[in-house]
Design a protein that fits this description.
Blueprint lengths: L12 E9 L3 H12 L4 E4 L8 H4 L4 E2 L3 H5 L5 H11 L6 H21 L15 E2 L9 E2 L5 H14 L4 E4 L2 E8 H4 L9 E8 L4 E12 L20 H8 L4 E2 L4 E8 L26 E3 L21 H15 L4 E4 L2 H4 L3 H7 L1 H9 L9 E10 L2 E3 L11 E3 L4 E2 L11 H19 L3 H6 L16 H18 L6 H24 L4 H22 L25 E2 L1
Parallel strand pairs: 1-2, 1-9, 2-6, 9-16, 15-17
Antiparallel strand pairs: 3-5, 4-5, 7-8, 8-9, 10-15, 10-18, 11-14, 12-13, 13-14
Helix pairs in contact: 1-6, 1-13, 4-5, 5-13, 8-17, 11-12, 15-16, 15-17, 16-17
Bound molecules: flavin-adenine dinucleotide.
Flavin-adenine dinucleotide binds next to helix 1, helix 2, helix 6, strand 7 and helix 13.
């Protein structure tokens, strides 16, 4: 198939000073901050607002309350040190320092919007703070074990009631509109003018011209076969940015969560797996990972002195190695009253969602160990942003999981992502408000969308095959255990999949599924190429042919061309 001529310009236009793409915690905070400053904003999102990675977060949000520093209960330095340790030498120390000092701003914002964090009536400090793997102190704010749901629903309610925010649900952003794309010959610094967006219900493409555009499109867990991420996490922001020549880095660092519920009947299936929060392995709860159902032996101690309390990269790799070496289907997470000395009531009241979901599947977690496997969970790399969350293209910001701020390094410390997304949602807006040039922006002429074809794709079976192949290749060849041979095969196969999905995109009217497939394949290829490039093992990038860390200068950052 070859590219067809572009034709028939669509006349569907919206002009906005501010365009936000994505409605997780990052996008919603940005929208609320803009509205609170009296600005009007267009917020587009692929499905309903609530549909996001944010919704599924269980554990909570990490932050040190300045009042606890005064009381010497915790310190910003301690949070920073834990973050740096998890990041395995690739964090930006200044970013980490700033984050640890300001993270609590995100918690205050959420409380002000109406999020009811779990309280602790027995302590001087009003909130119950959890301690998760890798944290030296309890500093995780939670709402039971459904923190993300509480955050997302609260913010969505605020946004829905706000007349300054024009919400476009079931709208999928296709491509960014940039100065260089409009005029290929000009050599000035590039600038973003908005995006082309598919209106899924009306099956037409809207041109949204915007003074400032914010990519808040979240992660890309769906590029892997087994993931904790919901359907929308297809790496759209990464792919759109890459096509617009925006800098992207550290994509090889994809964090695998050590424990999602293993369900035999989901094998090979595209469904999201149920996450078993790390808080169950945390200090407070004390759950342990075992190889046999009735054992109380923490096998992770063979890999790290912290045993099952170690950071996720260590734990996920330990599970992967054992599963592969012993031909197991899964390992066991034991949080029973016998293993943890916690009462059934304690388990039920602290982890109600997990208790209920597991019970529905025939597992009473107070009595039965939980079968768990690792699954793709969090994208540590992303679109490179500066301290204001602006990308390498002016007037384009990236916030939340899609951004690479320098905080996560080679591995994310548990519960830092919700707070990072909330914090940068505000930082980006402060910078955008201070730098908006309305006059210049209104002069720019943007062409309407020209569909290459009006024809609808009929061959759904082939499309599904491309989806499945992309995801299987990623899991088998570019998962936790990587090496050159596997990665070369992954890159070759994914290059072919990018070509074929691009052909489909140019030969048919862009449906939501075609847009996602094209983005999924490109994001997968970027991850595989980055993993092939990084000849070392560090954080959540583990290569069995380069098992050691390499601290040479050139390994410190990997930018995707
Ligand atoms: C199961 C699970 C548990 C987690 N637990 C925790 C935790 O306890 N603590 C923690 O800190 N982090 C946790 N995380 C990670 C954290 O939830 C995410 O990193 C964070 O919520 C990301 O927020 P976000 O706003 O960047 O993106 P998201 O919340 O993923 O939102 C992205 C939005 O962009 C939209 N979108 C994507 N592409 C397009 C497009 N082309 N056009 C229009 N809209 C688009 C999506 O529909 C969605 O609305 C967890 C993640 C998962 C999946």
């Amino acid at each position: 198939m070859t590219k067809k001529e572009k034709r028939t310009e669509e006349k569907n236009f919206i002009t906005a000073d501010y365009l936000i793409i994505g409605s997780g915690i990052a996008g919603l905070r940005a929208a609320i901050e803009l509205s609170n400053s009296g600005q009007k904003v267009v917020l587009v999102t692929k499905t309903e607002i609530e549909h996001s990675n944010t919704f599924y977060a269980q554990g909570g949000a990490a932050a040190v309350d300045p009042s606890r520093v005064e009381d010497e209960k915790d310190s910003f330095e301690s949070h920073a040190q834990d973050t740096l340790k998890a990041g395995a030498g690739l964090c930006n120390a200044e970013v980490v320092e700033r984050f640890s000092e300001k993270a609590h701003d995100g918690i205050e914002f959420l409380i002000n919007q109406g999020v009811e964090f779990t309280e602790n009536p027995d302590d001087e400090y009003p909130y119950e703070l959890h301690q998760e793997g890798g944290h030296a102190k309890p500093r995780i704010y939670c709402v039971g074990d459904f923190t993300g749901k509480a955050i997302e629903e609260t913010l969505a309610k605020v946004v829905r009631a706000d007349l300054n925010i024009n919400i476009l649900e079931y709208h999928t952003a296709i491509n960014l509109i940039t100065k260089k794309w409009l005029d290929k010959d000009q050599n000035e610094d590039d600038k973003c003018y908005g995006a082309y967006v598919l209106d899924r219900q009306n099956k037409s493409v809207v041109t949204i011209k915007a003074g400032k555009t914010f990519l808040a499109t979240g992660g890309a867990g769906r590029v892997f076969q087994y993931t904790s991420n919901p359907e929308n996490a297809t790496g759209d922001g990464i792919a759109m940015a890459h096509r617009a020549d925006v800098d992207i880095a550290n994509m090889e660092f994809f964090q695998f969560h050590p424990s999602v519920l293993y369900e035999a009947n989901l094998e090979g299936d595209a469904k999201k797996r149920f996450l078993i929060t790390e808080a169950l392995r945390g200090e407070k709860m004390g759950g342990i990972l075992t190889l046999e159902k009735d054992s109380l032996e923490d096998f992770v101690l063979n890999y790290d002195v912290r045993g099952s309390h170690a950071t996720r990269d260590v734990v996920a790799k330990a599970i992967d190695v054992e599963i592969k070496a012993k031909g197991l289907k899964h390992v066991w997470l034991n949080v029973t009253t016998k293993a943890t000395c916690k009462s059934k009531e304690y388990i039920k009241s602290n982890f109600p969602e997990i208790y209920k979901t597991c019970l529905e599947k025939g597992i009473d977690i107070s009595k039965d160990p939980i079968p768990v496997v690792p699954a793709a969970h969090y994208m540590c790399g992303g679109i490179v942003v500066d301290e204001n969350s602006e990308t390498s293209i002016r007037d384009l910001y990236a916030i939340g999981e899609v951004a690479h701020t320098g905080l996560m390094g080679a591995n994310r410390l548990a519960s830092n992502s919700l707070t990072e997304a909330a914090l940068y949602g505000k930082i980006a807006i402060e910078h955008a408000l201070a730098n908006h040039d309305e006059e210049k922006f209104s002069e720019v002429k943007i062409p309407g969308w020209c569909a290459s074809s009006k024809e609808r794709i009929a061959d759904v079976a082939t499309m599904n095959q491309f989806w499945d192949t992309t995801r299987t290749v990623m899991t088998n060849l570019c998962g936790i255990d990587r090496n050159e041979q596997r990665l070369k095969l992954a890159v070759a196969t994914l290059t072919a999949l990018v070509d074929v999905s691009t052909d489909i995109y140019y030969n048919f009217f862009p449906t939501h599924e075609i847009i996602e497939l094209r983005n999924l394949a490109l994001t997968a290829k970027i991850i595989a190429e980055s993993a092939l490039w990084r000849k070392e093992s560090r954080g959540c990038h583990q290569r069995n042919d380069y098992p050691e860390r390499n601290d040479d200068e050139y390994m410190i950052a990997s930018n995707v061309d």
